[in-house]
Amino acid sequence: MSTATAEHHDHDDHHGPAKGWTRWLYTTNHKDIGTLYLLFSLVMFFIGGGMALIIRAELFQPGLQMVDPLFFNSMTTMHALVMIFGVVMPAFVGLANWMIPMMIGGPDMALPRLNNWSFWIMPFAFLLLLSTLFMEGGGPAGGWTLYAPLSLQGGDNLAFVIFAIHFMGISSVMGSINIVATIFNMRAPGMTLMKMPLFVWTWLITAYLLIAVIPVLAGAVTMLLTDRYFGTSFFSAAGGGDPVMFQHIFWFFGHPEVYILILPAFGIISSIIPTFARKPLFGYASMVYATASIAFLSFIVWAHHMFTVGMPLAGEMFFMFATMMISVPTGVKVFNWIATMWRGSMTFETPMLFAIGFLVMFTIGGLSGLMLAITPADIQYHDTYFVVAHFHYVLVPGAIYSIMAATYYWMPKWTGNMYDEKWGKIHFWVSTVFLNVLFFPMHFVGLAGMPRRIPDYSMQFADWNAVATIGAFGFGFSQLIFVYVVLKCMKGGEKATTEVWEGADGLEWTVPSPAPYHTFETPPPIR
Amino acid sequence: MLFVLRWLGVVSAALAGQNAFAALGDVNMTVGVTPISQEVYGLHMLIFWICCVIGALVFAVMFYSIFKHRKSKGAKAADFHESTMVEIVWTAVPLIILVAMAIPAARTLIAMEDTSNADVTVKVTGYQWKWHYEYLDSGVSFFSSLDAEHAAARQVGSGVDVSQFEHYLKEVDNPLVLPVGKKVRFLHTASDVIHSWWVPDLAVKKDAIPGFINENWALIEQEGVYRGKCAELCGRDHGFMPIVVNAVSEEEFDAWIAERAPVETMADAGAQTVAATTEDDDADREWALEELMARGEPVYAAACAACHQANGQGVPGAFPAIAGSAVVTGPVDAHIKTVYVGVAGSAMGSFANQLNDVDMAAVLTYQRNAFGNTVGDTIQPAAIKALR
To answer: Any idea what the CATH number is for the domain that residue A290 is in?
Structure first.
């Protein structure tokens, strides 16, 4: 028995990736699947970005120049669905696939075949979703929040959207189960929970959030489906239902979802800043506790998205106080990162630039979030461009920048080649300038009274909208630099060392670059 | 702490409200014209300055570190990586700031929710895509939709330079008239999907939800015209259902109410487009085809064109065409029912309360004989009256 195992083991060592396209279809290798997720996310980034540019092009000037308002609404709806479910979430799962086994000294994900399936559901889910754009009546146009009864009014795209959401949900839940199973079962001996890199911790907590709330979303959209096609009245007052109940259920999913989109980013930043400050992460334990607190709070703040629906005063008070509380653990995180930088020995390669960009602009988004928590003021901010500015500041220089930082940071490990530092830095600076030109003016027009989700607006908002559109096109096209740098790095370049970065710490920096197809088949010793 | 915050509030109000920021009306929240809107503005500026101070401190430390502690300047990395004391401090200090902030916010919130002892009550009903106002004390009611000139200008390819309109997309046919110095209570509801009635100068934003009634109130202190918009995505023309509030003196308001007939309809209210006198609304007489056609055309423009389009072609897959429609060119009863009752589970609501007998008969007749439809028959107002 033991001989047979040894032989089999031997055989595995020489076993590389399969040849041809079936490698990608049948793969159960965490690195291959990670790559698939990341490339999928990159493609969707340009599809969702294209939609954003259509939105911004129409908003360049007052008056309707290009699109029908209904198509405009379906662009805002699809842009959000694609960016949330097709870009940020798959990118984080891709990074988890690549990095978690290597970070904890495990050979692969715990459930490799499930892993393959989690990925391959995604392209079909998005095929379903995007196909609605070519149907009679167009894509969903009721906003990504799918509020009843508006979402029930459209054509049959609703059924496609709901099934697409179910598929994405199944994919996310399976991916999360896999991540939880991997973290609890595949750690190298000696890799205790409190030794795990923060990225592993934040993903562990994110995975639990996903498992908890994706079924809630599934329930909500299924009720929409039966309301639309099977005569139920969950959300119709005429039939004894309640349209506001949909919002409560949706945001019980939706608010934790917001943290699903940012917690892994916290993990990434917590890896990158210590590396380039050449100093260990400050307050590791408090970072773990802060993440857990944010996750807990995310379940009890959902109705702050609904301060205008007419809740009882006590409800509004509770959700105001609970929401304000979130800024405490979030603040702790920002302070810890700054303390990590403090008296370090910093260099500013591209990953560090993106990490600092994250830190600065995520803080701006966090502060506008604190403003939004003040309920009386929120009643003025609600559903205006101020909110659009707020969540784009936390999602674009937040989630998206962390993904780019992670890509630059770990790409040498993935490909074995250093990326082009000069173009990486250009990418950062051009993106950052245009990003602020794009999103900062949205604060102004929002405060001045411009509602969100409108295809046309009054003259007083014209100047800042024109500025924002210029920023949007600049930001959009500067992402082509990113594609260029990634493709160039995949093709070749200066060979990366094992450690890659001078200050790098962690198990992923102990394997050669590029990382072999199988790593840590025997567990590494943990200091 | 509280003292400091109150002081900060005063400074920010002085700084922002009166002079410095007042000029920046297009980049900041309006101060508004109600006691609540002024309180809300004060809270907004207070939390804004708090955020600015926090942000400035955080960024100052961060950028000091970025410029000072860099390897190229020979900085050697220290090795400290935890301090319970520091962690406690930067948890506790924000907590204290939050508690201090929560107190004035809660006070304003309580005041906002107090809708008791109102002098005037207006029921506001959201429709796709217009508002209906009903003064519950006097029974005056009317629809309020986007001004016809703006509605024409905002079409794709209209060729109209919209910058000629001073209040582009913020002008309506019938503004809501309210008295100043009186506590006005709003009751919000909707007939089809969720809308949200928002007038920034009143700091009133409340969702209008079908089947439910929400309350809100405003005490306007200054005469003037205040403009707002629907704030909740409500379908295709969400961006085109503005709100105009005309705040007038109490005497003017009373006179305005007095001269209005207690029950009005859209066609009456939209008097600019439809010439309506009581004689013209005689539902019992026989109407000629030409008469109905002439009357039906503007009603179609006001009531139907938003979805079914001005050319009657609809939007494929979303809104059916009128031209060549089986319903419109088919039996009279089914056609009447579609408009009078609506179509369950679709955007087609009931127009029974939106159109009077003559208007509905006219628009039905118009649909049957326009856009290439040539049914040739008329639907008489009497037939609609019989349904009521």
So the answer is: 1.20.210.10
**Using CB atoms, which residue from A69, A138, A310 is nearest to B214?**
A310
Of A163-172, A360-369, B39-48, B272-281, the range with the lowest mean pLDDT is: B272-281
Residue A524 lies in a domain: no
B18 CB near a chain A CB, below 8 Å? no
Structure tokens belonging to residue B15: 């700084």
What are the pLDDT digits (tens) for A327-343?
999 999 999 999 999 99
**What would the DSSP string read from start to end of A40-100?**
HHHHHHHHHHHHHHHHHHHTTSSS--S--HHHHHHHHHHHHHIIIIIIIHHHHHHHHHHHH
Q: All domains of chain B, ordered by start, with CATH?
A: 2-74+81-112 (1.10.287), 120-264 (2.60.40.420), 279-387 (1.10.760.10)
In what side-by-side order are the strands of the sheet with B141-144? B141-144, B130-135, B120-127, B183-190, B214-219
Q: What is the mean pLDDT of residues B178-192?
A: 95
Q: What are the angstrom distances between the C-alpha of B234 and each of A147, A279, A424?
A: 9, 52, 43
Question: Does residue A7 sit within a domain?
Answer: no
Q: Is A279 a catalytic residue?
A: no
Query: What SS3 string covers A10-36?
Result: HHHHCCCCCCCCHHHHHCCCHHHHHHH
> Both tokens of residue A458?
């009054």
Question: What is the C-alpha separation between A400 and A396, in angstroms, rounded?
Answer: 5
Number of domains making up chain A: 1
* Phi, psi at A366, each rounded to 5°: -70, -40
Compute the distance between CA of residue A448 and CA of residue A433 in angstroms, rounded to an integer.
24
Q: Is pLDDT at A444 greater than 60 in this prediction? A: yes
Please tell me the predicted confidence (pLDDT) of residue B7.
47
A101 upstream amide cis, omega within 30 of 0: no
Choose from B54, B99, B156 for mutation: most chain A CBs within 10 A: B156
Q: Is A229 a catalytic residue?
A: no
Does the structure show a pLDDT above 60 at A88?
Answer: yes
Catalytic residue of the set A270, A275, A432, A469: A270
Residue entry with tokens 């949706």? A250
> Is residue A391 one of the residues assigned to a domain?
yes
Which residue in the block uniquely carries the two structure tokens 């999360």?
A176
CA of B212 vs chain A CAs: smallest distance (Å) = 8
Query: Is a pLDDT exceeding 50 seen at residue A245?
Result: yes
Q: How does the average pLDDT of chain B come out, rounded? A: 85
Q: Enter the tokens of residue A58.
A: 């129409």
Mean pLDDT of chain A: 93
Question: Can you tell me the mean pLDDT for B156-165?
Answer: 86
Nearest CA to B173 out of B280, B251, B264 is that of B264
The strand pairing partners of B34, in sequence order, are: none
In a domain, A317, yes or no: yes
User: Measured between CA atoms, how close is A69 to chain B, in angstroms?
Assistant: 5
Domain that holds residue A101: 22-510
Which band of pLDDT confidence, cut at 50, 70 and 90, is reported for residue A248?
very high
Question: Is pLDDT at B292 greater than 50 in this prediction?
Answer: yes
- Chain A closest-CA separation from residue B81 CA (Å): 4
In percent, how much of chain B has pLDDT > 70? 88
* Predicted complex ipTM: 0.90
